[in-house]
């Protein structure tokens, strides 16, 4: 069992909170984290988020602030902006959005008005809440229409997307999502958006690191606006960015500030700049391709064990598993796997007959394990653990789950996680 290193100031000020931080360090070290939206940041990124930049208020943009004393902050933000432009090959970047959802809201504010029609992928089919889904503010303030996937392939039917766009004439079309295991055809979406005079927003929150590393096609030639978080596959802090063509720069910046936010989180901006610096290194390209290779290897190993994968596999970092043929609900499986030291999330699958809080599937991904250095040779072992865990979940076999938990911890001890202040 690993032990966390002390945080002296934190421990002295608040022992209870320090103990919880230490417990989380041990949990992240000892478990196999397969949630596709999670990752490990480097020690340098962790340090950047804890700098004295936390102390500074900076409403406005570089050179145009409402507070004085911005000599260093302006340079930090400019550094992040220029690195974003270089890594993604965009004309404009805004690094101030607090997270992915506010970034998407800024796109609405920039290009639509309440009551306008907007179009996005249906949440149960793999889309995101902020793509016009009903329970989101975006589905309340706007007329959200959704496209889905084909019954037979679980892939987007672009004839259907085009027909829906022609009928509804949306002001904004979102592409991307949270449970999309296949390559997003940005060119096809761009063609449809241009035909109906819609703004295309590519939400690449999940795949930003893959795009940066050349392991997924870029939306830049096709999308008017690109929205992304900076964690997940990009391995940065919990923040977000909006990128666009130069013609949309003013609208985007105005929507972020003063439209939706006050002062940016400068410590996060610094960590974004650092993460982009890391993403520009050749080693990051290797990482991005390894994420995809691991996901494909894991998918093949799961298929060999009789698991039903949505769309039959994956092209990216994410695998969506329909457990209907295993006769184990997704929530039951996810909670059992957690007890076995395998961290996943339960998830709806396309055309799921079960309710969202008790769905048929689980969602897994390979960003975190790839950051720890695990390779394709270990994916069959992980598939075996998942198989044993799901079988044990169906039988209520806690001893089997405990056995897997011990094996997982033993393997994780051989692959220390970057950024974790853990002593063996």
Automatic annotation (TrEMBL):
Its main location: cytoplasm. Its EC number is 2.1.2.1. It comes from the Bacteria. Its cofactor is pyridoxal 5'-phosphate. Pathway: One-carbon metabolism; tetrahydrofolate interconversion; Amino-acid biosynthesis; glycine biosynthesis; glycine from L-serine: step 1/1. CDD domains: SHMT. Keywords: Amino-acid biosynthesis, Cytoplasm, Methyltransferase, One-carbon metabolism, Pyridoxal phosphate, Transferase. The modification N6-(pyridoxal phosphate)lysine is found at residue 232. The keyword Acetylation does not apply. The record marks 231 as: Plays an important role in substrate specificity. It is found in: Cytoplasm. GO terms for molecular function: glycine hydroxymethyltransferase activity; methyltransferase activity; protein homodimerization activity; pyridoxal phosphate binding. Residues 11-386 form the Serine hydroxymethyltransferase-like domain. It holds the Pfam family SHMT. One of its GO terms (cellular component) is cytosol. It catalyses: (6R)-5,10-methylene-5,6,7,8-tetrahydrofolate + glycine + H2O = (6S)-5,6,7,8-tetrahydrofolate + L-serine. One of its GO terms (biological process) is tetrahydrofolate interconversion. InterPro entries: PyrdxlP-dep_Trfase, PyrdxlP-dep_Trfase_major, PyrdxlP-dep_Trfase_small, Ser_HO-MeTrfase, Ser_HO-MeTrfase-like, Ser_HO-MeTrfase_PLP_BS, SHMT-like_dom. (6S)-5,6,7,8-tetrahydrofolate binds at residues 123, 127-129. Belongs to the SHMT family. HAMAP family: SHMT (MF_00051). NCBIfam families: PRK00011.1. Homodimer. Catalyzes the reversible interconversion of serine and glycine with tetrahydrofolate (THF) serving as the one-carbon carrier. This reaction serves as the major source of one-carbon groups required for the biosynthesis of purines, thymidylate, methionine, and other important biomolecules. Also exhibits THF-independent aldolase activity toward beta-hydroxyamino acids, producing glycine and aldehydes, via a retro-aldol mechanism. Thus, is able to catalyze the cleavage of L-allo-threonine. This is Serine hydroxymethyltransferase. It comes from Streptomyces natalensis ATCC 27448.
């Amino acid at each position: 069992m690993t032990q966390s290193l002390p945080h002296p100031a934190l421990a002295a000020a608040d022992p209870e909170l320090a103990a919880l931080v230490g417990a989380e360090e041990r949990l992240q070290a000892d478990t196999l984290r397969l949630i596709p939206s999670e990752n490990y940041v480097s020690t340098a990124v962790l340090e950047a988020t804890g700098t004295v930049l936390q102390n500074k208020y900076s409403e406005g943009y570089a050179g145009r602030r409402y507070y004085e004393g911005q000599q260093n902050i302006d340079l930090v933000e400019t550094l992040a902006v220029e690195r974003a432009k270089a890594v993604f090959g965009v004309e404009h970047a805004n690094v101030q959005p607090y997270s992915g959802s506010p970034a998407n809201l800024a796109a609405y504010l920039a290009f639509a008005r309440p009551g306008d029609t907007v179009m996005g992928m249906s949440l149960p089919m793999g889309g995101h809440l902020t793509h016009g889904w009903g329970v989101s503010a975006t589905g309340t303030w706007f007329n959200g229409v959704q496209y889905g996937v084909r019954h037979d392939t679980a892939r987007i039917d672009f004839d259907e997307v085009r027909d829906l766009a022609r009928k509804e004439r949306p002001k904004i079309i979102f592409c991307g999502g949270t449970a999309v295991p296949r390559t997003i055809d940005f060119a096809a979406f761009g063609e449809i958006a241009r035909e109906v005079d819609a703004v295309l927003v590519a939400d690449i929150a999940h795949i930003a690191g893959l795009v940066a590393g050349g392991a997924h096609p870029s939306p830049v030639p096709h999308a008017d606006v690109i929205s992304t978080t900076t964690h997940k596959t990009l391995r940065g802090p919990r923040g977000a960015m909006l990128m666009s063509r130069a013609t949309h720069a003013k609208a985007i910046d105005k929507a972020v500030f003063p439209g939706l936010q006050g002062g940016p989180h400068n410590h996060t901006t610094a960590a974004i700049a650092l993460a982009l610096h890391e993403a520009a290194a050749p080693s990051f390209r290797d990482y991005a391709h390894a994420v995809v290779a691991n996901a494909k290897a894991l998918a093949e190993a799961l298929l060999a064990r009789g698991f039903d994968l949505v769309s039959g596999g994956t092209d990216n970092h994410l695998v969506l598993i329909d457990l209907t043929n295993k006769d184990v609900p997704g929530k039951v499986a996810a909670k059992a796997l957690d007890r076995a030291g395998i961290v996943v999330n339960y998830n709806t699958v396309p055309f799921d007959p079960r309710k969202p809080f008790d769905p048929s599937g689980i969602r897994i991904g390979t960003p975190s394990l790839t950051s720890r250095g695990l390779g394709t040779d270990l994916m069959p072992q992980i598939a075996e653990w998942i198989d044993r865990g799901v079988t044990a979940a169906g039988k209520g076999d806690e001893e089997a789950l405990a056995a897997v938990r011990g094996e997982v911890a033993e393997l994780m001890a051989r692959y220390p996680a970057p950024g974790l202040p853990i002593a063996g």
